[in-house]
What we know:
18 helices, 30% helix, alpha+beta
Amino acid sequence: MVFRYPVPFPNGKGTVNYVHLPIRDDGDVRIMFTVVAQSPPPNTIEMYCQTSSIDYHPVPSSFTTPLHIESLGPSQHMVEKNTSSPMYMQSYDNDMEPIVRVDMIGVTESIVMTVENYVDILPRNDDDNVELFDEDDGNEDIMDMKDNENIENDASLLGGGEHDVLPQYLEIELGYIWAVKCKKWSEGCNWRLRACRRKCHGLFEITKYIGPHTCIYPKLSQDHSQLDSTFIAREVQNVVQSDHTISIAALHQIVKDKFGYNVHYKRIWEAKRKAIIRIFGDWDESYQTLPRWMNIVKLTNPGTKVVWKTSVLAGCNGNVRFMHVFWVFRACVEGFKHCRPVIQVDDTFLYGKYIGKLLIATSINANGHIFPLAFAIVEEESSDSWSWFLHTLRTQVTQRECICLISDHHVGIQAAIRDPNVGWSPPYAHHQYCLKHVVSNFNDKYRNKMLKDLVYRVGSQHQPRKYEACMTELKRLDEKYLEWFNRLNTKKWTLAHDGGHQYGWMITNIVECINGVLKGARMLPITALLRLTFYRCVSYFETRRTEIQTRMANGDLYTSYTINKMTKYESRASGHTVNIFHRSNEIFEVTTAPHGFHMDKGNNIQIVRLKERTCTCNKWQSFGIPCSHVLVVCTRARIDSWQFIDKHYRMDVYACCYTPQFNPIPDQAYWPEPNFPIVHHNPTLVRDKGRPRSSRIRNEMDWREPSVKVRCGLCKQEGHNR
């Protein structure tokens, strides 16, 4: 409530024209008088009254209460008490705010008594509208506070300049007074701030602010000592939580836009690390939390497999040191039973506090999308780690035979494949090299763009005669190129000789794609990383289920990948001609149509054997989808060509891949303690501070996180800079 009650001053210097009477629960009433002086600047007198709460009854006139009047002038601290006369009465009502009745005569007498001891402050600024600080500059109770990383001083950032924190703990009725002033006070900057801690809520209220700074530097790019990493971590925590992959440069710009200071890169990096710890937990403690998380996932999602590899800590019973961990979710294991028998494996670096590798195994669904299968964290990529991962993959995930395993040319993977105890040797599995890695290794040696494209065409040819033609062209250019390929097994990197095990998939870039999906997880603590793989798989399965239900509701019997290929082959089949050699044995000869632009192409003869499900073009065997030669034969023989499509492409089989569901994880308070030793990190794997110096020679196969797109400064379009 605000009462406008002019009160004349005895010395004629001004009048009091505002009275604020906010009532608090503790029965105190704060009366603030703004003194409008004849000579500027205006000043404030604060008086505090204490009341007695009497519900539903007015305070009798004979009841007296103390009146505490405080005047904090520039050179005095006067407290006057008057208990001789009633100052106000109050009553309460259930539906109304408290009613305060003030005896303004007594208030006027108190004001007069206060003003008689009040000393005006001489103006220090030419601007009459600026209120000057009403504290004594020479007060010995004020002392400077040094910049400290642990001091939280939000109010000290007001005004954007530099200032000292000057705590002034004056024992008054209501709490403490806290004051700050600019560091450039001695140089003429008048920026000051005063706050008082209130007992009603325990917080500081700003009661006086004089600004803005008059010491603004011409350069706003300098750092600020009180913008420490802890303070910045609190400011950017919500941003990091919504996108923990945000770059340091982006966070730096956010801090600069908000506070106007160019904070050092290392401090922003440390602030992001602290923010990640606040959100996802500490790296060291995360190792001890990991067994509990794995245990609750196994309990809530039966069928989930977790395999540990640890070493015993000498002299510490019940404590082990982390080495490897492998995990696969039940829904992934059950869904892979309906996928094509193809598994791709790859690895990626971890960017957190500790050095390590994330090993990933994926498959391909009937629509050409990735199917997440299994994950593992190892200390390093070696023959032992790959043998352990592939052996665990064989024993815990699938025992299917004739699985095609696609990988790069890493020596650790090759050593694991050659070991019969691992379980990926023929006839249980067929190992194939990623064609893109083969081409990249060839290009690293010879550095020729034309040769690189030619080698890619060599490996992706479906027909052996076309493969031989490309190899002849390589030999014509230089025989040393053939010597390089002679060291590779032709069946492991060419589509013409793979026997149809790869289903037409020659590269592991799908695993590179999942590296992109999990790129944000690679910098998180280990438990947060595992949790992210769980929830990403949950989201991925739900997205695919929705897509499948929509297509099945539209009446589709096969996946869109299959329909697109059949449509393309049907357009080619219209120009083919068919000769029937044996209708009962279903043997046909197909002559392809001549090419419209190249006279040397077309007019080729392909042999189709429907009973054996083969065509000499080798595309039927590679993809499991009838080629254009089979389609023209089926049209001539009046046979339904869709019956020759591999069963994995049917929508009902495709839906079975994502039918298994994940169960939610309860709150951490309900996690039982597992019967597992305490896991500790390996201290030798702590990553050094600063940007790591890499000795690896990178090529186009190394996956890079996407950077900011180049944008033209003239037309503002992406893809070019001018």
